[in-house]
UniProtKB/TrEMBL annotation:
It comes from the Eukaryota. The keyword Endoplasmic reticulum does not apply. It comes from Lactuca saligna. Keywords: Kinase, Transferase. This is Carbohydrate kinase PfkB domain-containing protein.
Amino acid sequence: MGGNREPRGLIVGNYCHDVLIKDEVVLAETLGGAVSFISAVLDGLDITSDYVSKVGSDFAYSVNLNHTPVVSPSGKTAVFHAYFTSDPSEIRREDRVLKRIQSCNPISPSDLPDEANFNFGMAVGIAGEISPETLEKMLDICDVVLVDIQALIRDFEIDGTVKLMNLNETGFSHLLPRIGFLKASAEEAPYVDIEEARKSCCVVVTSGKDGCTVYCKDIELQISPFTTVQVDPTGAGDSFLGGLVAGLVHGLAVPDAALLGNFFGSLTVGQIGLPKFDSTLMQKVKDEVQRRKMQCDEHDDESRFKKPSDHEQFIASLCTAKLLTTDEVLDPDPSYADHQILFVKNSVYEEPIKAMDTKP
């Protein structure tokens, strides 16, 4: 993906309105959707992309003018409720229960540009808005396409609760050989035949505090995590994808790019809702990525999946950048999750949700 021409991406997926609910108390309402988290990373790293998203006339957020969504007059903006619990006796595989309250119109192939001049694409649907036909057109007009598996395998119960289905039971499985990178969380991975998928594309499985694992053909790499205090896991995988593609676009080896993904995922879970990345931090990251780009040669198909000899130095550099700006990005107090609540513009309820203290 790292070529001589100015990188240009195509990001496809709808925005949504996220309502975060802990122990039946609304903590915050915020702009959501994978595109919002990914754009925060790509914009911060100066990577130009076109965004194809749909919302309803009830959409109440301001976004970058270059990322303005298509407004469907007959539709409504997708809404998700994310339910969290602080009860230690509540043991779940997932860190939250997610429900789709309403969904927007799907993104059709005709909504995408016709010209085939994108050097990367990202299929990052959240509510079933990307069809096999739409993904197929993305594969036609983009050099490499990265896919978040949630865009392909999410299904919904009658009450909107998100459930997952096996990839082979969807209409997407025949497109797998054409996908460049497939990202899945540890919870989603069982719904994909990793051993089969890795034969034709690079599969990256994220595991939260344990980092991520890269699978490609006969290669399996464990990529280190970054220590952080988790406040809200929403969007961590999206920010990971943003960091991953940023590294690939700049010509980094896959292990370095995946490390950059872990880095941005760790920053995201330390904030409630859509993260804000400190400008000083982002500049340090850009400088470090540029330094590595200048030092490394072009990677062939084999070497691009090997950890560079100075991979550990890259880890140290990113840790240093994070530590130097952490006070502006994260609150290191573990009780942060219990008392730091955001005030976010509300587009669903009649009154804004005000800042509140949920400590007993």
